[in-house]
Every structure is written in structure tokens, then in C-alpha cells.
């Protein structure tokens, strides 16, 4: 929050700030939509961990808010004030290249509980503008605030919005524009899932990541595995089994549990006496050598069917979370070894894709071909 | 196993036995407590909502479905094996309130162990709320002088975060003053009754609460804390367990509500800057339980997980496990595989020590299976948790 406010002050009235370094490898997410549609709430909840109930107190955004998101990839999130129409502004001409020049996604937020005709009309003009000048930008429509609406009603709205946009676009001679629709709410996991989908499209070599996870699932008999960005709970890859919201929810909540435990018990420094005592007799070993794994690892057995869930940190930003088949808790040591191998592969993968030149990434099979023990 | 049981019994008896001898100790251990708990406050202040969250595993947002409580909603909450809460959720509409204070006065206010009074911070008519509160306190002092009073200033989430503390303090001061006034009035009315003037200075505790965060757990854990029978025994045993397994912190949770029943913290653990961690743990585990129930499709109140472990590199390790029938235990400890594995084994070995938590296991005559033979001397605990070096 403080961060946001500081940014707001710093940006000054003449947005966008031309001094922002325009590095190539920073995909950009642009949040746009009518005022009060929930853009700032979304970015606060997803990127700043604001409890959804506290978004009530957020003030209206007056200037473009720029956040940069440091994770496995660096993202920029730009939150646009709803009252400004960047394509038709009498007072100020926006530098379109500065806004849309980077590869990224435009997230258009529509308030489903409000009259959305105007929002749809503005979205249409925006899409037409973008398709002409910047066709590489993915357009993602968040039909937002759908909590409290019945399932049927949600789908009705989605259908209606989709048809209105497609009709308008095809009237203008634009078929098959890259527009995707998501039903979202900040009060449940849907907003994180939607962001996951948006971000996955921006990850180079996603297929490779998915192949590694699929392989791991097959070898270790996992039901489902997710690779999470821990800070935002966005999943950046999953295995190839069909997606289901329920397993995403439980895995994402598990990440939350671990984050909370880590904060309470792991974020403050222990005293030297404590360390000395633990490293002294009878262990006589530095603490680092007393542990098996330097990263966080965790497991939980659900009472029903004794199905375990496991989590393993990959690096500072990423964690692997998987739901295992029932009764496989006893095989944990073997599974851990396999997970270790995959984690090593993942680390290599991100080392390589971090190089800005995507072409230099290895072809299939070069990264993720560690031998896995059959579990 | 029987070794452990004997050891457990003698340990259990030690703290009390020192004062009054074995028979008394047993009698105390056996006693099944029933506590009358009154939950009162104006209509719509959130009494039933918090009750549902704490004892029936509702999610905060599910409480919107609850309707107004009509008259008194009586429920018996089994909390640990040997404590039953007689929870009187008193509908807060004015007609009911008047009724409690007049016709039902003796019925409602006698034998009360705890009064929980809920104020809605957003209420428009504060004066009137306070007037009702004073009447309730007067009635309570009249019939149950020993009762403890917990005042919850509720719905704090509706106040801007920056002004919450100030708003709470201001309201708390008013409530304290009013409580003193109410007690004062009762003093003045008493003299002609030829009784010694009541020594009352009401035991009053105030909490700022909201169903949307952990503050609710803090308040309820304090309420519960004073009611738990054999608390000193639990604490002594947790201490010896903690020292034996070299833990930094041990928390004992009740199974359904996940309120912290008892806790032990090492000297190093005391340095933890998170003072609110106990209620936070309750909140985290409870919402995790909810996630599990949603995923597995099992009932909300069913047991959702049995074992949990988390090793965070060379920083710390922790595990939580089903402990006795009615409790979960959470142990936070220094890192190290060997230390971790032996602690897990030792916690499992210590289970019989805490069997009395599941009471009433002991038949009245003290011949239950738990007390095999007469506990003699010595502190049997050490044997029970001798560190098994992994």
C-alpha cells in the first residue's frame, strides 16, 4: 500500500513516465476499464496481498500506477485510471509506443454487476486501435465482481459480452482478434486463476515446463502438480491433466499456510546462543549440515483417503505443489529424490530463459531429461 | 505402554498432589465441568455469527445466511472431553432483552460462569446500548457474583485501520466506566439485606474483534482459557515435553474450534516478535481445514488432516499432528533432521500423558484404566520422553 502511494506521488501528472527503463524482457500487464470497475482492487489483492475486505477503503486512482513485480520473470503492472480515455484525450496525447510497445497483455476489467454497455463500447474502440498498431498485445477481458451472481447469470453475461465484442469487431472487418474472457472476483481464487492464464501466455517455452511437470506426475503418481509464484499465488505451469479449480484452490491455500507459518516462525533472527547450543554436543555439526534440504519442504496428509499434499520450494520465488495419490505418503523419501531432480531441472530452465535472447534456449529434451526413479 | 500410563498419571498428579494429597488430585482431575456461558448484546451485533465461526466451522462470509436469533438458543458445546459449555445465545431484540431482565431474570442470570457481551462498534444508538448493558450487568451481579465478563467490541473491520485502536480504546473506557457504575448501583441497593457488602469488582476483559480476522480467536481463546479444567497440569506436562524434545514452541489446539488450549514457549521462542501468533495459528489452521473440507467434500466439522510437517531449510522445522482425541498439537523447533524425527517419535510417546484431556475417562472411584496402581513418588516424565537419538 505504502508502495503504491509513493508511486502515485512520484509519477506526477505527466504519465507515462518516459524515464522508466525500457528493457526488453519485462512483459507488461496493463489494467484498464471503466472507473470503479475494480482495477486497483485487483492489483492490490493480487500483487500486494491486500485482504479483499479492505479494498473498500481504496481511493480512486488518479494517475497511472506502475508496479514492477519481481519474480521468476520481471513484470510490470500498470493500473490506468478509469476516467481517462487514452485514445481520445483532449488535454494530453499519450505516447502509444511507450505504453504498448512492450510485449504484454491488456487486461480490460468489466464490472458485471453494473451496466456494462459503455465499457464494452470503449473496449471495442481500444481493441480496434490496438489491432491496428500493436497486434502482439494479448487482450484479456475480466468480467469482474461475479461473486454473488448465480452461475447461470454469470454465463449469460459472459455470452452477451462475447457476442457484443465479436459482432462489433467483425463489422469492422476484424475476425479472430486475440480476445480472451475470464469470470473473476477478488473474493475467491478466480482472480488468481485468471492472472495465471494471462501470465502463462507470456512465458517463453511454457510447453517445456509443462512437459517436466507431466513427467514428474507420471513418475511419482501425482494427481496434479502446480508450479506457483509464491508471492502472488499465480501458477505459472501445471501438468497436462485437465485443469480443475478445486485442486488449484487447495494447492494455492497450502502455499498460503506455508507463507504464514514462515512469516511467524521463520522471519526473525535466532540468537547466537541458540545456534551454539544446537551446533554443539551431541550434534557437533553446523546447522546447515544437519538439514537435508536447504529450501522449504513440507507435506500434509489429508484425513480423507489419506491423500498427501506436498510442497517444495524451487527458488526464492517459485514453489512446486502437488497433490499425491492416496497412500503414497510412505514413499515420501523416494518422491523427494525425484522432486529434487525436477527442481534442479527447473532451476536450469529459468537460468536459461532469463537470458533475454529466447532463441538461445535449448530445444526440447535438453533441459528436462534427468532420469527419474520409478515411484 | 502401561509404563507410560503410570508415568502420565504420576506426572499429572504431581502439581496438585504437592498441596492436597493424591485423593484430592484425582477428584480434581476427574471433575467434569459444565459451564454456563451467556452470549448477549443488541440484535444484529454478531453474536450468532461468531458462535458459528468458532464452534461450527462457518466461514466468515457464510454467516450472512444466519437469521435473527429468537429468544434463547441453547447449545451444549463439548470442548475437550471434560468441559461442556452451556452456551446461551440470547437473541438481542429489545422485547427479549426486557424479558430476560424481568420474568426470566433468575433463570437467565443465575449460575453464570461467563458473560460475553457484544457491542456493535457501528451502532447508531450508543447511549441506549450502554443502558441495556448496565441493566444486564446489574442483573448478573445480583445472581452470579463470581461470573467473569468479557466485552467484545465487534465489527472492528468497519473502522478504518488507522483509527481502529483509538476507537476501541475510547469505547473501552466508556464500557469500563459503565460497568463500575452498574456495580456501584448494586452496592447501594444491597445494605438492607443484611449481607456483607459484596466484594465484587467485576472481572472484566475487553477485546476488539472482527469475524474477518484473527482477533475473534484471541478473544475466544482468552474466554476458553479460564474455563479449561486441569490447566495447570496441562501446562506442566507441556513444559516437560517441550524441554525434552528441545522445542521452541508447543501449541495445543482443541480439535473443532482450533482455539489454543495451552501453550509453551522456550526462552528463545519468547523472542518471537509476533505477539499475535497464537490466534493467527488458529485462524490459519481453521481456514485450511475449511479448504480441505471443500476439496474432499467431507462435512465441515469432520477431521480434515492428520499430519503436517514443514522444514524450512536451516531456519526452523515444525509439525502438527492429531494428538489426543480432542486435540491437535503443533510443535515448532530448531532445524535438523535427527532432531525432527526424534521429536516426532517423542510426541507420539507422550500421548498417554495427555489422555485425561479426553476425559471423562476416569470412573468416579479412581479405578480407571489410566491410574494403574497408585502413583507413588518421583517424576516419571523423564522416562517417557527420553530422547531417542535418530
* Overall average residue pLDDT of chain A: 82
What fraction of the residues of chain A are assigned to beta strands by DSSP? 15-25%
Number of strands of chain A: 11
- In the predicted model, the low-confidence regions of chain B spanning at least 5 consecutive residues are 1-27, 361-390
CA-to-CA gap between the ends of chain A? 46 Å
Radius of gyration of chain A: 23 Å
Oligomer description: heterodimer
CA-based shape of chain A: elongated
Note the gap between the termini of chain B.
21 Å
Strand arrangement, largest sheet of chain B?
2-3-1-4-5-6
DSSP E strands of chain B, number: 11
Subunit structure (chain A): Component of the GSE complex.
Keywords (chain A): GTP-binding, Hydrolase, Membrane, Nucleotide-binding
Protein name (chain A): GTP-binding protein
GO molecular function, one term (chain A): GTP binding
Describe the structure.
- The complex is a heterodimer of chains A (375) and B (390).
- Chain A is an alpha/beta fold.
- Chain A has 11 helices and 11 strands.
- Chain A has helices at 2-11, 39-48, 96-100, 117-133, 151-171, 190-200, 206-220, 245-266, 272-279, 287-290, 332-354; strands at 28-33, 65-70, 74-79, 104-111, 138-144, 179-183, 222-229, 234-238, 296-302, 308-313, 318-324.
- In chain A, helix 4 (117-133) packs across helix 5 and helix 7 (206-220) packs antiparallel against helix 11 (332-354).
- Residues 1-23 and 356-370 of chain A have low confidence and may be disordered.
- Chain B has 390 residues and is an alpha/beta fold.
- Chain B contains 12 helices and 11 strands.
- A 6-stranded mixed sheet of chain B has the order 2-3-1-4-5-6, with helices on both faces.
- The model of chain B is unreliable at 1-27 and 361-390 (pLDDT under 50).
- The chains are: A alpha/beta (375), B alpha/beta (390).
- At the A-B interface, helix 8, helix 9, helix 10 and strand 9 of A face helix 10, strand 9 and helix 11 of B.
Amino acid at each position: 500500500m505504502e508502495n503504491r502511494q509513493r508511486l502515485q506521488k512520484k509519477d506526477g501528472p505527466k504519465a507515462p513516465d518516459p524515464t522508466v527503463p525500457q528493457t526488453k524482457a519485462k512483459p507488461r500487464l496493463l489494467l484498464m476499464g471503466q472507473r470503479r470497475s475494480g482495477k486497483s482492487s485487483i492489483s492490490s489483492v493480487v500483487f500486494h496481498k491486500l485482504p479483499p475486505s479492505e479494498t473498500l477503503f481504496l481511493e480512486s486512482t488518479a494517475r497511472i500506477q506502475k508496479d514492477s513485480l519481481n519474480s521468476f520473470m520481471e513484470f510490470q503492472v500498470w493500473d490506468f485510471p478509469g476516467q481517462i480515455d487514452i485514445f481520445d484525450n483532449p488535454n494530453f496525447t499519450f505516447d502509444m509506443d511507450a505504453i504498448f510497445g512492450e510485449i504484454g497483455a491488456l487486461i480490460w476489467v468489466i464490472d458485471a454487476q453494473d451496466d456494462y454497455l459503455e465499457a464494452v463500447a470503449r473496449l471495442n474502440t481500444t481493441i480496434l486501435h490496438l489491432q491496428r498498431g500493436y497486434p502482439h498485445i494479448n487482450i484479456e477481458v475480466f468480467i469482474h465482481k461475479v461473486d454473488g451472481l448465480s452461475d447461470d447469470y454469470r454465463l449469460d453475461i459472459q455470452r452477451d459480452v462475447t457476442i457484443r465484442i465479436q459482432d462489433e469487431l467483425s463489422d469492422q472487418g476484424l475476425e479472430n482478434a486475440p480476445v480472451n474472457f475470464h469470470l473473476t472476483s477478488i473474493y475467491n481464487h478466480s482472480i488468481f486463476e485468471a492472472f495465471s492464464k494471462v501470465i502463462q501466455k507470456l512465458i517463453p517455452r511454457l510447453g517445456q515446463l509443462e512437459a517436466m511437470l507431466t513427467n514428474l506426475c507420471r513418475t511419482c503418481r501425482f494427481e496434479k502438480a502446480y508450479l506457483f509464484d509464491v508471492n502472488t499465488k499465480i501458477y505459472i505451469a501445471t501438468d497436462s491433466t485437465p485443469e480443475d479449480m478445486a485442486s488449484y484452490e487447495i494447492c494455492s491455500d497450502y502455499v498460503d499456510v506455508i507463507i504464514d507459518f514462515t512469516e511467524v516462525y521463520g522471519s526473525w533472527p535466532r540468537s547466537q546462543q541458540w545456534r551454539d547450543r544446537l551446533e554443539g554436543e551431541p550434534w557437533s555439526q553446523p546447522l546447515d549440515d544437519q538439514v537435508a534440504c536447504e529450501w522449504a519442504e513440507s507435506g500434509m496428509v489429508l484425513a480423507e483417503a489419506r491423500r498427501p499434499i506436498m510442497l517444495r520450494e524451487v527458488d526464492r520465488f517459485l514453489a512446486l505443489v502437488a497433490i499425491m495419490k492416496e497412500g503414497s505418503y510412505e514413499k515420501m523419501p523416494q518422491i523427494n529424490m525425484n522432486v529434487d531432480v525436477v527442481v534442479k531441472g527447473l532451476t536450469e530452465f529459468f537460468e536459461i530463459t532469463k537470458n533475454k535472447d529466447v532463441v538461445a534456449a535449448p530445444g526440447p529434451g535438453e533441459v528436462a531429461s534427468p532420469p527419474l526413479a520409478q515411484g | 505402554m502401561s509404563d507410560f500410563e503410570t508415568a502420565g498419571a504420576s506426572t499429572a498428579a504431581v502439581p496438585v498432589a504437592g498441596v492436597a494429597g493424591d485423593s484430592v488430585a484425582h477428584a480434581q482431575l476427574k471433575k467434569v465441568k459444565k459451564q454456563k456461558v451467556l452470549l448477549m448484546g443488541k440484535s444484529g451485533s454478531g453474536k450468532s455469527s461468531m458462535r458459528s465461526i468458532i464452534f461450527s466451522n462457518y466461514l466468515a462470509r457464510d454467516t450472512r445466511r444466519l437469521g435473527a436469533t429468537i429468544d434463547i438458543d441453547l447449545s451444549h458445546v463439548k470442548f475437550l472431553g471434560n468441559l461442556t459449555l452451556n452456551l446461551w445465545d440470547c437473541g438481542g431484540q429489545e422485547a427479549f432483552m426486557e424479558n430476560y431482565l424481568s420474568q426470566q431474570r433468575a433463570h437467565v442470570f443465575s449460575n453464570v460462569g461467563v458473560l460475553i457481551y457484544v457491542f456493535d462498534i457501528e451502532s447508531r444508538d450508543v447511549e441506549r446500548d450502554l443502558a441495556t448493558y448496565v441493566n444486564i450487568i446489574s442483573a448478573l451481579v445480583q445472581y452470579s457474583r463470581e461470573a467473569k465478563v468479557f466485552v467484545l467490541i465487534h465489527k472492528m473491520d468497519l473502522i478504518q485501520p488507522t483509527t481502529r485502536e483509538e476507537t476501541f480504546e475510547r469505547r473501552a473506557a466508556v464500557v469500563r466506566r459503565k460497568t463500575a457504575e452498574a456495580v456501584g448501583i448494586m452496592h447501594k441497593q444491597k445494605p438492607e439485606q443484611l449481607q456483607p457488602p459484596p466484594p465484587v469488582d467485576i472481572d472484566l476483559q475487553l477485546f476488539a474483534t472482527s469475524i474477518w480476522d484473527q482477533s475473534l480467536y484471541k478473544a475466544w481463546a482468552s474466554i476458553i482459557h479460564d474455563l479449561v479444567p486441569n490447566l495447570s497440569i496441562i501446562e506442566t506436562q507441556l513444559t516437560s515435553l517441550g524441554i525434552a524434545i528441545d522445542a521452541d514452541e508447543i501449541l495445543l489446539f482443541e480439535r473443532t474450534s482450533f482455539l489454543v488450549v495451552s501453550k509453551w514457549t522456550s526462552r528463545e521462542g519468547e523472542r518471537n516478535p509476533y505477539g499475535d501468533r497464537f490466534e493467527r495459528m488458529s485462524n490459519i489452521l481453521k481456514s485450511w481445514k475449511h479448504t480441505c473440507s471443500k476439496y474432499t467434500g467431507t462435512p465441515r466439522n469432520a477431521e480434515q488432516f492428520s499430519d503436517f510437517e514443514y522444514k524450512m531449510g536451516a531456519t526452523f522445522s515444525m509439525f502438527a499432528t492429531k494428538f489426543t482425541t480432542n486435540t491437535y498439537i503443533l510443535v515448532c523447533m530448531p532445524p535438523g533432521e535427527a532432531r525432527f524425527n526424534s521429536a516426532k517419535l517423542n510426541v507420539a510417546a507422550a500421548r498417554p500423558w495427555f489422555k485425561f484431556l479426553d476425559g471423562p475417562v476416569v470412573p468416579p472411584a479412581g479405578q480407571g484404566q489410566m491410574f494403574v496402581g497408585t502413583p507413588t513418588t518421583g517424576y516419571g516424565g523423564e522416562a517417557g520422553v527420553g530422547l531417542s537419538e535418530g
